[in-house]
Predict the 3D structure of the following.
Amino acid sequence: MNKRAISISVVLLSIIFLLAGCEDEEAYPQKRSGERGSQASGARLSSIVVDSAAEQPPTVDSGQVQRVQSQKPQNTNPQINNSRRNAITRAVRKVSPAVVSITVTEMVKGGRRLAFDEYMNRFFSVPIEREVSSMGSGFIINRDGWVVTNQHVANENAKKVVVSMTDGSQYEAKVLGSDELADLSLLKIKADRKFPFAEFGNSDSVLVGEWSLAVGNPFGLFEAAQPSVTVGVVSALHRDFRPNPNEPRVYIDMIQTDASINRGNSGGPLVDSNGKVIGVNTFIFTGGTSAGNVGLGFAIPSNRVQKIIRQLATTGEVHLSYDPGFSTIEMTYQLAAKYGLPARMGLLVNNVNRDGPAFEAGIVPGDIIIKIGNERVQSKMHGQALFREYEEGDSMRVELLRDQKRYETKMYLRKKVKE
């Protein structure tokens, strides 16, 4: 091979190697050193992302992507998702639409002020009245919009009553009747529509230890009237409380629960795991430790509620279905000293109807009734509450004092004989 041929071969080989080096540099830009190499790499990666996004359907936005991602874990394990739905959640879903928040406006007298009378030309002391609003809970019991709540939440002294539904709608309501002794009121929503309602359960079949749900609007926190739910168990049954002489209400045979009940829950339903109302949440016992819930809440049994509501719906007041045939007054130390009677709590019989059950049972004026059934009578109001536990046709056991001796008799309850 001559020198010219060798020179041509060297040139060709140089060109080939030069071309090969340029192709490698374009194929592998990361081989370049310094910042330029990093920028080139970034440019290539970003173009890949853009291209990938361009291949996606144009109607999918970030919100839809997030919703799909949030649903994905639930769909991956349907067994866990189904286990979240249990008797408690079904009961809440069943009763919640019928639970309402109640706002009451009333005029309250507090203090006195001086007012000038131009006619008499002098100042007079007159009571000060102010408008006060309070909140509580309740629940609808039929499609016509009848609402059950506590008497201390809404009563006939209310100037205005507003009922708020779970859907945010609000209606005025009127008080059909209230009973201070039992602490129950019946309202009627002023609206021409049909309402969701809760069903009553049988409080006589309630079991200690079964689930219980307190539903209502505690502290009036939620303006939208979405009910708050607390869960516990039925802690005890047939709880009685000694009447307070300064308190006209008497609470007997109450259901105790540890489901949290707070202010604003008053009048709301206590619900079992079937979604039926077994009581009306009424008060809590704090034991002097605080003003909040300590796990001792009490509800009026549903069977008693239904009995009282039926009477409030028909007459606006509660009355006995029978005539006991006597009248009584509450025993006091003054009465005991005046008539030389034993100083015992009870009811002094001051009149007996000769055609009534009391006369037939041998009760006479001057007797002191100390027990009705197995309950010791604490006051006249307590005695009235005990009388309500009986109906026409029942037999009532009565224990009394006469001449310092105890006697026991039975009254067979019936209506008064017409003359």
